[in-house]
Amino acid sequence: MEHTVTSKARRSRTPGLFPRGRPGAWPIVSGLVALVLALPVLVIFAHVFLPAGDVWVHLRQTLLGEYVRNSLLLLFGVGVGVLVIGIPVAWLVSVCEFPGRRIFQWALMLPLAMPAYIIAYTYTGMLDFTGPVQALIRDITGLGYGQYWFPEIRSLTGAMLMLTLVLYPYVYLLTRAAFLEQSVCVLEVSRTLGSGPYSGFLRVALPLARPAVIAGLTLALMEVLADYGTVAYFGIATFTTGIFRTWYGLADPGAAAQLAAVLLSFVFILILLERWSRMRARFHHTSSRYSTLPRYQLRGWKAAAAVAACLIPVLLGFLVPAAQLTIWALRTTEQWLNPDFAGLVLNTFYLAALAAVIAVILALVLAYARRMEGGLITGLAVRVAGMGYAVPGTVIAIGVMLPFAWFDNTLDGFMRMHFGISTGLLLSGTLAALLFAYAVRFLAVSLQTVEAGLGKIKPSMDDAARSLGMRPLATLTRVHLPIMRGTLLTALLLVFVDVLKELPATLILRPFDFNTLAVRAFELAGDERLAESSSAALAIVLVGLLPVILISLTIERSRPGQTQRARARKRRTDDAPLALPAGAQAS
Amino acid sequence: MFPHASGIFTMAALAAALAFPATVTAEGAGEGEVNLYSARQENLIKPLLDDFTRDTGIQVNLLTGKADELLQRLRLEGRNSPADVLITVDAGNLHQAKEAGVLAAIESQVLNENIPESFRDPEGQWYGLSMRARPILYNKAEVDPSELSTYEALTEAQWKGRICIRSSSNIYNQSMVASIIASEGAEAAQDWANGIVSNMARPPQGGDRDQIRAAAAGVCDIAIANTYYLGAMLAGDDTAQREAAEQMGVFFPNQEDRGTHVNISGAGVTAHAPNRDNGIRLVEYLTGEDAQRWYAEVNQEYPVRPDVPASEILSGFGDFKADDLNLSLLGVHNAEAVRIMDRAGWR
Predict the structure, then answer these.
(1) How far is the alpha carbon of B256 from chain A, nearest alpha carbon, in Å?
(2) Low-confidence residues of chain A, pLDDT below 70?
(3) Residue B3 and residue B18: Cα distance in Å, rounded?
(4) CB contact under 8 A, A353 and B347
(5) How many distinct structural domains can be found in chain B?
(6) Taking the model in full, what pTM does it have?
(7) According to the model, what pLDDT value does residue A467 have?
(8) Is residue A444 included in any domain, yes or no?
(9) B117 and B241, same domain (yes or no)
(10) Other residues' Cβ atoms within 10 Å of the Cβ of residue B256
(11) DSSP H or E segment with residue B250
């Protein structure tokens, strides 16, 4: 198997500080782009050198241990959770056939549209001591507080569950895309060699999909590290809550940035581990022959188990909370059913779409530059920029505001001094600043996805294209992009939905009189007006729904085998008039 | 081809979107405009701003956010900041804004007449707009109010496992501990925080309303929460919340000594306000009779003007003696308060 599908790391050459050979425009442009995108994270890192007073001593004596312990436990719990849910369902809907499979393949993505803090608020409203579920139990049994056992939703375990429910789609989505893009020959060969469905999955498909699985897992874990809303509401002290507390409560930005740097080093280790684990083997498909594999038809209890495995995550991660939100929203229609609300929806939609396109284009530029033996600086800058995803949005926002305000004020000062005119704030407080922040924050999402997709295309394709005289841009647009259409759509979808939900950076960077659904939902939910916030929360989910479904369908159609088969079918019909006489002659 | 096609489409959207703030600016040209950074959320300020625009013709551009972050933005934007007015919902934040030098002292006859001295900055950099108290709320079925006396008495053994209060990350708790530091000293505040932590019914979680609901449902007997949360629960349409709130009694502690802890929301005109006069007019408007009545009725806050009555619900809680501590001190002692709660293990 190794011989058919892996080519050993081609890049044994160590990349130099600058790209080898004639420096074309591509590496220079991509290097600059990467550096600009890395700026906010670097700005935060620079805070590390601020004097931190005695806050560290205080933190060590009090909360630091808890921050570390809780963050690690949360990472571990959610990590296990998203893998246990994400991989099996991806496999089931990709290669098995069971009732409802066509619906599940997109429905499994729905929890992606649920902001973590909203699902946390919703479940708390339903399940905590004063909620309807426990009230019903008390009514039936006549027991009071402390006389019966009920799981405490606002706990570390509760937070793990909430985050797992909304984050498993990352693993599901990327893994499924990988399964669909797998050259069918590999699977066919494995079947001819006697692999059954289980060993075919464990020994061939899963190892091949590993880069995608890891990419999905990394995204989920970075989001866990950046999460503030859920852990703050549940009262769990993690690095994120610690950063906020230190920055604002203890009024010590230096120490807060140092905490953020510790958090970033978590991420860095995560990324290094992933790189290291992949170092010796890169998986490329050497065969480009694809065809549709007959699905395993599941029957009886196996089909029932498959349905249950797919239904439970959708039910808990989407249907139940969405139903609760709908009930609340219907109770408060008079408060939100107005033209303002439509404007809010449109605002949010455009912003998310725009940010998604920008993030994916940037990711393509950067990933492609790295593929073409990018220099060390570009590679490092890309890594640093990608870490933005694990940084709480507020911290990124400050990293964006600082350089932008500095630029604006310096330019203004210069113009005033030399020309007597004031240019004011050119960038700060504009949508451009906000879009830049989104690009920084969500670059990791598009980059991980695009790199995973690009990595599966064997480098000999590039060489072939180049030897046929194609320039890098042409190779990208005419060779790579068509192959990775599914991957690109996945990346677009992920960033789109992430921006829909994004709150902290939007809150602080947006221009005057500009609101999004997430801002509206948060303002109300943050003030404990859960019912009033439900309409905006529900709208986030609904706006996210449409692209989720559309893109999911496109991803399935994007499976290389699908188009080839369709083309083959077409060819057969085209050829028919010619073939028939030939056949007739033979008989 | 996919990214290109939508790229062009969305670039057009970007251009339109970028033009958006500019058109807003142009619209308010009649009587000018005023730019507001508000930590008070949109639905709790917008109706007042609309009234202001109707009465004066001045267009208000609004940016809501968290106080700390608005302050951060204001500082970074420096002298080019478009903001004219900053509104926060805690005196500690107002003090920090003053310390950061982003507010300007203003001299206004109207403001000085409308707002009692204890609710404004001695140098005129910020002015209180509304007041809230943080009293002891008790479950009427479990607690006789005669058992209650002061915040300090809640640390006694009889309250073990009976108190609900939210996380120490919350500014209201930080300000409350800061008020104890200011009047009784850091050591007393540490003792108090330790005592409260050992008497908690459960680790702190949720917001103020959650504490009230928990006490009503029997998780604990005492909840410490701001008055407007209880008021809003009583005035709201949610039956379950109203019923929970109705089970609670309000006890204003420390009436024999310093008084019940109170806090304010307030506003200040910024140091580099491009529309300074309009900014002053807006702050004056927010302390006007109509605006004060609106706070009282809609958000169940105590008006800062003595001549405007509290809402019926708030009046029902009874009169009380408020801690007349200079509210700047809440900001001064904020960081110390956080450390004290950290040491007490107050999550």
Answers:
(1) 31
(2) 1-24, 52-53, 182-187, 197, 277-294, 336-337, 373-375, 528, 551, 555-587
(3) 21
(4) no
(5) 2
(6) 0.81
(7) 83
(8) yes
(9) no
(10) 9
(11) strand B248-251
